[in-house]
Design a protein that fits this description.
Layout lengths: L4 E2 L9 H10 L18 H18 L5 E6 L2 H13 L5 E6 L2 H10 L4 E7 L23 E3 L2 E2 L4 E2 L10 E4 L16 E5 L10 E6 L16 H6 L9 H16 L2 H21 L4 E2 L11 E6 L5 H10 L2 E2 L10 E4 L6 H18 L2
Parallel strand pairs: 1-13, 3-4, 3-5, 5-8, 8-9
Antiparallel strand pairs: 2-10, 6-7, 9-10, 11-12, 12-14
Helix pairs in contact: 1-6, 2-6, 3-4, 7-9
Bound molecules: pyridoxal-5'-phosphate (PLP).
Length: about 350
């Protein structure tokens, strides 16, 4: 067996220790005599896994009792519709900040449910920066303000939040648990698991309890946040194995020293990679340096015609999935929590070597 460094944006690399533990428990989970995949979601065994996942996530993110943790399905893309469907009931509009591909998709879906007030957009700047929060167009009577603090495709990340009385709803799919955040500043956080938490199939939702009152009975039952909360994420069969894997990742994260410790590693990894890009005329990253993503690092080669060779040779060197998103081209290295510093160093070493051989 040989494992490579996997820079895929999602589904992304998982910690090897987690995969090994899952492997060791695959046929017989804790003496149950069956795999987690084969047990009833209503069994006491699975209920203990679900409870463990919630408790660990609460500790890792310091989530207070004011919030409900839900495990939803359908990917973050389903939440793009589910959120306005639940949270705009009784309101005439919702504010959206447009900072890239994922916020744009969220806006497109929200328009099917409500009047979208564009709070600000950096589209004119090719999404290479973040709109000035001081000039945002906010409707005080809106249901919420939606934003995407890490644009996975563009490689744009911002840590600050706008100053507003509106509940902030944030798509943290590609940045959850990578840095410390103050959950109490959010009305709702959601994140598809397959970037930084676990396998595809489950979406983590952290919803302030008062917002659950907005969910109307007219919603499809499985879409209703209040019903989901009342049934502990089990209106119907939840993605049990994905939740189990998420719990193992949370356990691994606790063993790493928690979010504060992993954040320091993420800073070191991103700094090293951006320094390598900036220190060369051969590579470039277009993002406003104040808003460069720690998780997704896009870069271009000065000579575009070398891209295919770069991808071919990097793959042969054990560095997998470095191609940029089809909509932006170039390269992209996703360096989530599970990517060790050694993987980033291996990439930097390859980039230097490649430049040495193909650069002018
Ligand atoms: C990947 C991603 C999504 C979409 O996730 P799906 O699970 O494929 O629906 C949405 N938002 C962000 C920020 C993402 O990175």
């Amino acid at each position: 067996m040989s494992r490579v460094y996997n820079f895929c944006s999602g589904p992304a690399a998982l910690p090897e220790a987690v995969l090994e533990k899952a492997q060791s428990e695959l046929l017989d989970w804790h003496g149950a005599g069956v795999s987690v995949m084969e047990m009833s979601h209503r069994s006491s065994e699975f209920k203990s896994i679900l409870a463990s996942a919630k408790a660990r996530l609460s500790r890792l993110m310091n989530i207070s009792d004011d919030y409900e943790i839900l495990f939803a399905q359908g990917g973050a893309s389903t939440l793009f519709a589910q959120i306005p469907a639940n949270l705009t009931h009784g309101f005439n509009s919702a504010c959206y900040l447009d900072t890239g591909a994922w916020s744009s998709k969220a806006i497109k879906e929200a328009k099917k449910y409500t009047n979208v007030v564009l709070a600000g957009s950096s589209k004119e700047q090719s999404y290479h920066t973040v709109p000035d929060f001081a000039t945002l167009n906010l409707d005080d009577s809106a249901a919420y303000l939606h934003l995407c603090p890490n644009e996975t495709i563009g490689g744009l990340e911002f840590a600050d939040l706008p100053d507003t009385s509106l509940p902030i709803v944030a798509d943290l799919s590609s940045t959850i648990l990578s840095r410390q955040i103050d959950v109490s500043r959010y009305g709702m956080i959601y994140a598809g698991a397959q970037k930084n938490v676990g396998p595809a199939g489950v979406v983590i939702c952290i919803v302030r309890k008062d917002l659950l009152a907005r969910s109307s009975d007219t919603l499809p039952t499985v879409w209703n946040f209040a019903t989901l909360a009342a049934n502990d994420s089990m209106i119907n069969t939840p993605p049990t194995f994905a939740i189990y894997l998420a719990d193992l990742v949370f356990e691994w994260l606790e063993a790493q020293g928690g979010v504060a410790a992993i954040e320091q590693q993420n800073i070191a990894k991103a700094n090293a990679l951006y320094a390598a890009i900036d220190g060369s005329d051969f590579y470039a990253n277009p993002i406003d340096p104040r808003y460069r993503s720690r998780m997704n690092v896009p870069f271009t080669l000065a000579d575009e015609s070398l891209e295919a060779t770069f991808l071919e040779e990097s793959k042969a060197a054990g560095l997998r999935t470095l191609e940029g998103h089809r909509s932006v081209g170039g390269m992209r290295a996703s360096i989530y929590n599970a990517m060790p510093m050694e993987g980033v160093q291996a990439l930097i070493g390859f980039m230097r070597d490649f430049e040495g051989r193909y650069g002018k």
